[in-house]
Amino acid sequence: MRFLLNVCCAPCALPLIEAADRPVLFFYGPNIYPREEYDKRSKETEKIAGISSLDFLAGEYEHDNWLRYVTSQLLNLPETYQEGGERCQACFKFRLAGTARFAKENGFERFATTLSVSRFKDVSFINRYGVELAEQHGLEYVTFQIDAGEAHRRGIELSRLHGIYRQKYCGCEFGLR
Ligand code: SF4
After folding, report:
1. For 176, what's the count of Cα atoms within 13 Å in the CB-facing half-sphere?
2. Residue in 171, 153, 172 with CA at minimum distance from that of residue 11
3. Which DSSP letter does residue 114 get?
4. Any ligand 1 atom below 6 A from CB of 29
5. In this structure, what are the phi and psi dihedrals at residue 27, rounded to the nearest 5 degrees?
6. What is the reported pTM?
7. Which residue of 32, 132, 157, 163 pairs with 38 in a disulfide if CB–CB is 3.0 to 4.6 A?
């Protein structure tokens, strides 16, 4: 069964590649700002696909659409929200919906996201929405039986081993500030 793994960044994907059944790596980061940072993270994801002999695909860099969507979901300006709150939930929804759509349109039966294994993200929210999208599109949403703290530690270890760039902020212009 064709399996699409949405990758937010290479360090988060490395431990999941070890745990997953040969996914296609799908770099999709419309949230990332600026463009140079997006290109850097995309390149690093392509690099780990090469190291792991996995296929690599990249989504569109639709940052303006992402920003419009996130803003439309909030009562106040996006910059006024703390990281981890409603702005991030809207961000997850945009990225997960884009991934599920891409999976459906490109003949995948299963999809997952690196966001679902994180110490810093609202994983229950992400997984609930992943399941909802899977039902809508007739797909399977995959989760990982891996401890988020252990995955984080392993991600750092493997990134050091392969010389992979580790970013210092989540991704968008608001996290950058
Ligand atoms: S801080 Fe991260 S999760 Fe939150 S809106 Fe920005 S990119 Fe998305």
Report:
1. 10
2. 153
3. G
4. no
5. -80, 115
6. 0.96
7. 32
Q: What's the 79 CA to ligand 1 centre distance in angstroms?
A: 11
Residue 70's nearest CA partner among 54, 85, 51, 58 is 85
Q: Are 78 and 111 in contact (CB under 8 A)?
A: no
What distance in Å separates the CA atoms of residue 134 and residue 72, rounded to the nearest whole number? 24
What secondary structure letter does DSSP report for 143?
-
List, in order of start, the domains of the chain with CATH numbers: 3-176 (3.40.50.620)
Of 31, 68, 169, 173, the one to substitute when testing ligand 1's pocket (max ligand atoms within 8 A of C-beta) is 31
E-strand spans in 21-174?
A: 24-27, 56-58, 110-113, 140-141
DSSP 3-state assignment of 33? coil
User: Does any ligand 1 atom lie closer than 6 A to the CB of residue 83?
Assistant: yes
Over residues 31-78, the pLDDT tens digits come to 999 999 999 999 999 999 999 999 999 999 999 999 999 999 999 999
96-137 pLDDT tens trace: 999 999 999 999 999 999 999 998 899 999 999 999 999 999
4 lines ligand 1 (CB under 6 A): no
